[in-house]
Each structure stands twice: as structure tokens, then as C-alpha cells.
Amino acid sequence: MAPAASSRVERRKARTRQTLLDVALALFSEKGIYWTKIEDITERADIGKGTFYKYFETKEALLQALLQQGLDLLLMKTKEAARGAKPGPKLLSKIIEARLDFFLEHPEYLLLFHQVRGLLQLTTESARDLRAVYDEHLDRLGALLRPALNGKGATNRTLSTALAAYTSGLLTYYLLFDKAGDLKRRRGEIQALLEQSLQALM
Fold this sequence. Notes:
The chain is mainly alpha-helical. Helix content is 82%, strand content 0%. It folds into two domains: 1-56, Homeodomain-like (Arc Repressor Mutant, subunit A, Orthogonal Bundle), CATH 1.10.10.60; 59-201, Tetracycline Repressor, domain 2 (Orthogonal Bundle).
């Protein structure tokens, strides 16, 4: 196959894979990860079920790819915000702000992360794979948070776990139980709560 034709095929495959991920993310937000079937994803994506299996062996494999994509995007936005911030409380504030902004812009990922955490308690192979994705994210976030500690007592992992848990926990609560506009309106209050909680750990 000529290089140009080969690259066209690769681009088409990448688009099809991304379409499956985008459709699944929307359906997981609407119906939940437990109640969304592969048939729901392929029907909405207008893609044959056989094609789905060319990209993902199972729904759990798609879920893992989606989790990885979301956490990578979240970490990228966090790194961008942290760039150039002074070590200590200012850095922590910038990192919290970036994560709040990300979830306000992408509530579908907030719901996905919330749902996936329920699977992490299981002992299946797919649950272990999901846990490995989360572990890697927490380690990378911990490394980013290290300068915020300024040599204080908490470990990188303690702070990264608390930041991830507090942020998604608070925002999920607001998203589920308050009006949609409340999240943006109460953003400053939420940020202050998170900073206060995390400073107490340091």
C-alpha cells in the first residue's frame, strides 16, 4: 500500500476509534456505565458491532481507554496551569483551579471518573487495569504537587489522592444535587474549601 493511502487508512481508523470513545462517553453520562451496552454505542455511532471489536475487545477495554484519555487531558491542563507558579500555596491554588476548570468544562468526565471509582473495589482483571490507570495518574499528579509541599509532612501520594478525591467528590455532589448553574456560581467557595482541606494535610 502506498504511504499516502496507508496514512489515510490510519487517519480513518483513528477517527472511528475516537468516535466510539466520544459516543461512549456521552452514553455513560446519560445512562451510566452499567446500563450502556455495546449495541447502544455502535447504534449511536452508526458503526457495526463487528467494527467495535476491531478497536476494543470488550466494553471494559473501551472504558479503560476513555479513563486514560480523560485523566491524560486533565493532567495536561493541570501541568499547563502549574507552569511558572511559585512553589508552596500558590502552586497548590493553581493546580486546584485547573482541576475545577477542567471539570466545569467537561462534566461528562467528572461523572465517568465517579462511576469508574465504584469498579475499583472489584477483583476482576479489568478492575485491576482501571486501578493501574488511576495509580499512574495519582503518581504523576503527586510529582506535580511536590513543590507545593515545601518540605512539609504530607507525602506526594497522600496529597494527590486527597486532591483527586476532594475535588471530584465535592463537584459530583454539586452536579448531582444542585442546579447546573450553582457549580459555576459557587466556584470560588468550592476552591476555598478545597484549599483549606488540603492545607490541613500539609
